[in-house]
Design brief:
With 312 residues, this protein is α/β, with parallel strands linked by helices. It folds into two domains: 45 residues, no CATH class; 184 residues, SGNH hydrolase (Rossmann fold). Helix content is 35%, strand content 8%.
């Protein structure tokens, strides 16, 4: 069997052959039982020449042959590289502990903000109906229902307590207040004044007018103390009514200021409807004192009912 020869050994062998050839050492002599060829055979076959042919007695003379030590393959370990660890971001192992909320130390500061209860919705009051209301006054009140010169039938007669040409100084004013109180309505709307202004040509009776108004309301409240009181402002008249109301504009304003002060003092509701009067187009034809049905239906009643929460 031929051994696998290392290339390095082959180069050394060729080199040695060349040396022996040049030096004449390749020929067998009497003193040298082995020639260079024998060495080559031994190297190639791995067997000694004595195994191939009988070997004469070995010479005791020192060998002049170049002894080539067997070349063994050095076990070459692969160069050990210095491991370079890649620069990696620190890996954070997921925590197996359950997340805990940060512990907040109790504040030692005293809060100056008062604790407030959650807001609660204010209960809404039910709308009043016309049957819960009493209208008390003079002919300007009366014409909304039936009676007198006009019968507009805009509100039930059972809700109206008024007299044609009524004034606060008349007995009819007391009677109407008592009758309305006895009807036990939740809301009483008083509307006097236009005839009282006409009876005050010298414009000196405003304080007395306010006192008379208060007395009528007290009479009503003595019978029905739980009813709410509303006073409507006095509206002007047409410029055609010079005989009765000439120069009374300032006096009407004076009366209305007194009514507003009375309501503020007593806790009544003062409803200023002055802006509803826009001139002669609000008044009944050929009358100039009382209002038209259209004005009551589309201006006066919607405004008053809306302001006071009355369901029509």
């Amino acid at each position: 069997m031929i051994k696998k020869i290392n290339p390095l050994c082959t180069y050394l062998l060729i080199f040695s052959v060349a040396i022996f050839s040049l030096s004449g050492c390749g020929h067998k002599s009497e003193d040298d039982p082995f020639t260079f060829e024998d060495i080559i055979i031994q190297f190639l076959t791995g067997e000694s020449p004595s195994q191939i042919e009988s070997t004469p007695a070995a010479s005791t003379a020192p060998s002049t042959e170049l002894q080539t030590p067997p070349v063994t393959e050095a076990a070459t370990e692969p160069p050990t590289e210095i491991p370079t660890e890649p620069v990696t971001e620190p890996v954070t192992e997921p925590s197996t502990q359950p997340p805990t909320e940060p512990v907040t130390e109790p504040s030692t500061e005293v809060s100056t903000t008062p604790e407030t209860e959650p807001p609660t919705e204010a209960p809404t009051e039910a709308l009043l109906t016309i049957d819960d209301v009493a209208f008390i006054g003079d002919s300007r009140t009366l014409t909304m229902a039936t009676g007198g010169r006009y019968e507009f039938n805009l509100i039930p007669s059972s809700s109206v307590f008024a007299t044609w040409g009524g004034e606060l100084t008349q007995d009819s004013a007391k009677q109407n207040a008592q009758a309305a109180a006895a009807a036990d309505r939740d809301l009483a709307i008083f509307w006097y004044g236009i005839n009282d202004v006409q009876s005050d040509p010298e414009q000196k009776l405003a304080p007395q007018f306010i006192a008379n108004y208060e007395a009528i309301i007290d009479l009503y409240h003595n019978i029905n103390p739980d009813s709410k009181i509303v006073i409507l402002s006095i509206l002007s008249t047409s410029v055609h009514e010079k005989d009765y109301y000439e120069g009374q504009e300032e006096n009407i304003l004076r009366y209305n200021r007194g009514l507003a002060a009375l309501c503020s003092e007593k806790g009544y509701i003062y409803l200023d409807i002055t802006d509803l009067f826009t001139g002669d187009e609000c008044l009944a034809p050929d009358d100039y004192i009382h209002f038209s049905r259209d004005w009551y239906a589309h201006s006066f009643l919607p405004e008053v009912f809306s302001a006071l929460g009355i369901d029509r």
